[in-house]
Design a protein that fits this description.
This protein is α+β, with helices and mostly antiparallel strands and about 210 residues long. It is about 20% helix and about 35% strand. It has 2 domains: about 1-35, no CATH class; about 45-209, no CATH class. The protein is globular.
């Protein structure tokens, strides 16, 4: 093949074409074809938590938005519920608080309250994790802004490092917990005092990219 190509270019009076040029032409053409292939539609889960803190008298102390890591377990649940029918849709989700330690994609509900690098924060007065009362879907999103999950910090208080969403309300246990949907960290530890109230608004959304 190389001999035929060489003879063809010689007949066309193109003298400077070398073997490496021929190879380069082929590689460039192939790269161009690959680069023009469609990558398909991508669906992204874009979730976040808005957390506000007020003291015992109701005075505002701080607020922060946390971007939520959707775990592999959470992503699998979405696929298996919507597309394959392997899972049954979970009707009620619950919000919990976490201590120090970075969330990871492999974090799972069965490991609660000690999940990989982090543990569950339990120093609040409520006996259970708080319900995420999510509104009906609108514009590819849902949230619990009409009824944020509220936590009354107990004593001793300690620092709060983040928030998670799971399908069981047993504080400090993994009983009945099957899906740890997502976990998010504050930019830095949040100092809380006894009788502070944390209000957590969960927003879950999806978008194609």
């Amino acid at each position: 093949m190389v001999t035929l190509v060489s003879l063809l270019f010689e007949k066309l009076n193109i003298k400077e074409l070398k073997m490496k040029d021929i190879n380069t032409m082929g590689m460039n053409q192939e790269a161009s074809l690959i680069s023009n292939k469609s990558t398909g539609v991508q669906i992204g889960m874009i979730d976040y938590f808005d957390v506000t803190c007020h003291d015992a008298e109701g005075n505002f102390k701080w607020e922060e938005r946390i971007h939520n890591l959707v775990t592999n377990q959470g992503l699998s649940h979405v696929i298996q519920t919507v597309f394959t029918g392997q899972d049954t849709a979970i009707g009620t989700w619950y919000v919990g608080l976490k201590t120090t330690g970075a969330p990871a994609a492999g974090d799972a509900a069965a490991s609660l309250p000690n999940v990989g690098a982090w543990t569950e924060y339990e120093d609040y007065d409520e006996a259970v994790r708080q319900t995420a009362t999510l509104a009906n879907e609108a514009s590819q999103a849902t949230n619990n802004s009409a009824s944020p999950a509220a936590f009354t910090i107990g004593s001793p208080a300690g620092d709060v490092y983040g928030v998670f969403v799971v399908d069981a309300n047993g504080k400090g246990t993994n009983t009945s917990a099957t899906v740890l949907y997502g976990v998010g960290d504050f930019a830095a530890a949040k100092v809380v005092d006894p009788n502070d109230t944390l209000n957590v608004t969960v927003t879950l959304s999806a978008a194609s990219a």
